Structures are given as C-alpha cells and as structure tokens.
Amino acid sequence: MVRYKNLEGNSGVIAYEAGEDFIKIQFAGGVIYLYNNKVTGKHNIERMKSLAAKGRGLSTYISTIVKEHYAFKSFSPPLGRGHSNPKGR
C-alpha cells in the first residue's frame, strides 16, 4: 500500500492500493475497505484513484458519495490478529 499524503491534515485515510478496476483504502485504526467497479461503479473508482494520488479529498468523497458501496471490509487489529468479513455476511 502507498501512504496517503493527507495534504489537508485531517483525513482518516492512511494508505491505499490502486489496481485497474479497484482501490483498497486503509483507515486509521486498521480497517481496510475494498472498492471495485462492480460494486462501487467505474466512475467512482476512477475518481477515488485520482483523489488518492492527489492526497486530498478522498475521505470526504467516500463519506458523501460512495458511502457503504464497498465490496469487502477487513480488520487489522493490533498484534497482527485480524479477520475478514465480506459485506453482507
């Protein structure tokens, strides 16, 4: 994952990984969300990748536009103990 620049200084996003049709976002606290074209929509994925690269506006975009339209959510609690939870299961 690439560290998010956080140019505004108040984002909960700390890192991201972008692929052709997805973006993974890691938030403070260790929660990682996977967004993809199928669930989130291609336009939103492309916008999120652009905002991530710029280091500004990603968290706001997610909270106001994308909201709960993620494909997968995983938890990475302290001590390396984690579990994954597909949305809706």
Short description:
The protein is α+β, with helices and mostly antiparallel strands.
Order of neighbouring strands in the sheet with most strands: 1-2-3-4-5-6
Beta-strand proportion: 25-35%
Distance between the amino and carboxyl termini: 26 Å
The radius of gyration over CA amounts to 12 Å
* Fraction of residues in helix: 25-40%
Q: Helix and strand string, N-terminal first? A: EEEEHHHEE
The average pLDDT score comes to: 89
Number of domains: 1
Number of strands: 6
Largest sheet: 6 strands, antiparallel
Low-confidence stretches: 78-84
Shape: globular
> Structural class of the secondary elements?
alpha+beta
Count, helices: 3
What would you note in describing this structure?
With about 90 residues, the protein is of the alpha+beta class. It has 3 helices and 6 strands; from the N terminus they run E-E-E-E-H-H-H-E-E. The chain has one domain. It has a 6-stranded antiparallel β-sheet.
Any key phrases for this structure?
89 residues, alpha+beta, 3 helices, 29% helix
Note the topology:
Layout: E1 2-3, E2 13-18, E3 22-27, E4 32-36, H1 37-40, H2 42-54, H3 58-66, E5 72-75, E6 83-86
Antiparallel strand pairs: 1-2, 2-3, 3-4, 4-5, 5-6
